[in-house]
Backbone:
């Protein structure tokens, strides 16, 4: 099996960067203010205003969850890349040792 550790690290970096974007987006969304009466001054508008506020909170929480998942994925990719690199180096060392033993 061939694993491109550099590409795996790069993907992990991209995932962490996406996690950072999601985290910042959650912050922006949670700080956004919905002015009262923005949809009008009647019952249906007030109801829609309340629903919009709860959806805003829900999406901010989703973005934070996505941020965490993306960060964890990026960290996992970095750990996997290190593991594959270490394993590859160890296996190469073993092969070199076997070749040296075979030559004598």
Residues:
């Amino acid at each position: 099996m061939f694993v491109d550790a550099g590409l795996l690290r790069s993907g992990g970096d991209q995932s962490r960067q996406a996690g950072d974007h999601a985290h910042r987006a959650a912050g922006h969304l949670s700080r956004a203010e919905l002015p009262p009466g923005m949809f009008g001054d009647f019952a249906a508008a007030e109801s829609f205003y309340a629903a919009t506020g709860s959806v805003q909170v829900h999406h901010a929480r989703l973005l934070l969850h996505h941020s965490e998942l993306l960060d964890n994925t990026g960290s996992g990719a970095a750990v996997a890349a290190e593991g594959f690199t270490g394993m590859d180096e160890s296996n190469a060392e073993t092969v070199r040792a076997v070749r040296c033993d075979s030559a004598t």
User: Anything to note?
Assistant: Residues 41 and 62 are 30 Å apart (CA to CA). The two ends are 30 Å apart (CA to CA). The chain has one domain: 5-103.
